[in-house]
Design brief:
binds S-adenosylmethionine
Length: 233
């Protein structure tokens, strides 16, 4: 992968970025996504934020090599703390992290007034997509689009969210499976949830065999198994 040929996963994230966006890409090792978008002329400006020095240096190098310093500002810092309201960011991408980390980055940014809550969010959690959807619902966002795709034997979900005009109330099923993905039921979606079903059944079996089974965990797993079976069979 490079900034000319993105991974399929990042290409889908890029596709969701609106024309002329002022973008903050958080966790931007190599800054491939903002470089790709800047080279295509799809964005007005971008901040590539990184918390770790190595990936930060890689992002700096990439932006310099492409001569994109005017368009892309690479900043070292934690999550949305690299932003200020003067940056007038209107779109945030956070890709390739767990759902819980994505949620905490957004919450931190909000409690430190680094974002207005009106930005378009394009999020690609590697795990715990439900946590991300619950954050969106709690913060008055509506899911505008969702994708699911497989790359290098891993399945990824990409979620685009925009501020809602009216309060949003997603059901448990919509939070877990995705309001769009659960309607489309693509082959990749069925494959993902079949795999999850096998994992859940295996874990449940292990817990049931243990000397002191964790009842709370078992109830949660049984409920998820029921929902998955209902969804894919
Ligand atoms: N976004 C790229 C992608 O999707 O290919 C990179 C994903 S990489 C697996 C995750 C990156 O996020 C790492 O470079 C890591 O250092 C960075 N990261 C993790 N937590 C962060 C935080 N709180 N703030 C900024 N960057 C963070």
């Amino acid at each position: 992968m490079n900034s000319i040929h993105l991974s399929k996963r990042l290409e889908q994230v890029a596709d969701y970025v609106d024309t002329d966006a002022r973008l903050a890409d958080i966790g931007s090792d190599h800054a491939y996504l903002p470089c790709y978008l800047a080279e295509k002329g799809q964005i007005e400006y971008a901040i590539a934020g990184e918390v770790v020095d190595g990936p930060f240096q890689n992002a700096l190098k990439e932006v310099r090599q492409k001569g994109l310093e005017e368009k892309i500002d690479v900043r070292l810092g934690d999550g949305l703390m690299v932003l200020s309201t003067d940056d007038k960011i209107d779109t945030i991408t956070i890709a390739g992290m767990g759902g819980a980390l994505i949620r905490s980055i957004l919450e931190n940014g909000q409690s430190n007034q680094r974002i207005t809550g009106k930005e378009t969010l394009i999020l690609q959690p590697n795990v715990f997509e439900e946590t991300v959807r619950r954050y969106l619902m709690a913060n008055n966002y509506t899911i505008a689009a969702e994708s699911i795709l497989e790359e290098n034997e891993k399945i990824y979900e990409i979620i685009k969210a925009i501020p809602a005009d009216v309060p949003v109330d997603y059901s448990k099923k919509e939070c877990l499976f995705g309001p769009f993905l659960s309607k489309e039921k693509s082959d990749t979606f069925i494959k993902k949830w079949n795999q999850q079903l096998q994992t859940d059944l295996f874990i449940l079996g292990q817990i049931e065999q243990s000397k002191d089974p964790d009842e709370t965990k078992m109830t949660k797993l049984k409920e998820e198994i029921r929902l998955i079976k209902e969804m894919i069979t």
